[in-house]
Amino acid sequence: MHLVCLLLALLAAPFWETKGPSDWTDAQIELLLHDSPWAQMAEPAPAVQVYLATAHPLREAEAELARRRGKPLSEEYVDYLAQEGANKLVVAIAYKNLTALADGEEAHRMEEESIMRVGRQKYKMEGHFPPVPSDPFLRLVYPRVATERDKTIAFELYLPGYGPYHEAEFRVRDMMYKGKLEM
User: Fold this and answer.
1) Facing residues of 177 across strands?
2) For the sheet containing 152-158, what is the strand order?
3) Environment class of residue 87 by beta-carbon count within 10 Å: exposed (0-12), middle (13-18) or buried (19+)?
4) Between the chain's N and C termini, which has fewer beta carbons within 10 Å?
5) Eight-state DSSP code of residue 180
6) Torsion of CA 60, 52, 146, 19, to 10 degrees
7) pLDDT tens for residues 123-168?
8) What is the largest CA-CA distance in the chain?
9) How would you classify the pairing of strands 115-118 and 121-124?
10) Do the beta carbons of residue 50 and residue 77 sit within 8 Å?
11) pLDDT tens-digit profile of 116-126?
12) Helix or strand or coil: residue 62?
């Protein structure tokens, strides 16, 4: 009997497929933002929370969390997503040290050395949204070039204030949402 229950639990659709964002618990939202096909902790230590902010379920999670906390996302960022979200991929990185990017040399180094790899191709970031008190996430913008045929999307990130480099890799085939690839 326990084996049957375990098998059913493994075959059950994830909560983001079966419930609307307003029905997600706070714990489910945190799980989606930290450990889901679109989110992970980037190594090495100190590990940093990284997620694909342009993926539909993550956009829903951020909007729901902002609604619950009464802290809306930056209007500039929301407008950018509405205009460019279909053509760009945005990686959100939790940033506790909001002043780390104030050093112009470090910010420039981040812009030059933070790359996205899709297959054998490397892509430089195209811009970023710095963290602010109401939205403490650094958001890096990359071209949306990955397709369902690609195996992984990897990020090599130079993050001022967090030590040298952090890496995150996402498996493309795992990023399906309601039958569609979401990044």
Assistant:
1) 180
2) 121-124, 115-118, 152-158, 165-171
3) exposed
4) N
5) E
6) -30
7) 999 999 999 888 889 999 999 999 999 999 999 999 998 877 999 9
8) 61
9) antiparallel
10) no
11) 999 999 999 99
12) helix
Q: Which two tokens stand for residue 10?
A: 């493994």
Tokens 């989606």 sit on residue: 32
Cα distance between residue 33 and residue 173, in whole Å: 18
Q: How is residue 109 written in tokens?
A: 């180094």
Output phi, psi for 73, to 5 deg: -70, 160
Cα–Cα distance for residue pair 112/108, rounded to 1 Å: 6
Written as one string, the DSSP assignment of 86-147 is TTEEEEEEE-S-TTGGGSHHHHHHHHHH-EEEETTEEEE--EEE--BTTB-EEEEEEE----
> Which tokens belong to 176?
């399906």
Query: What residue has token string 């970031």?
Result: 125
Among 119, 121, 114, 140, CA closest to 51: 140
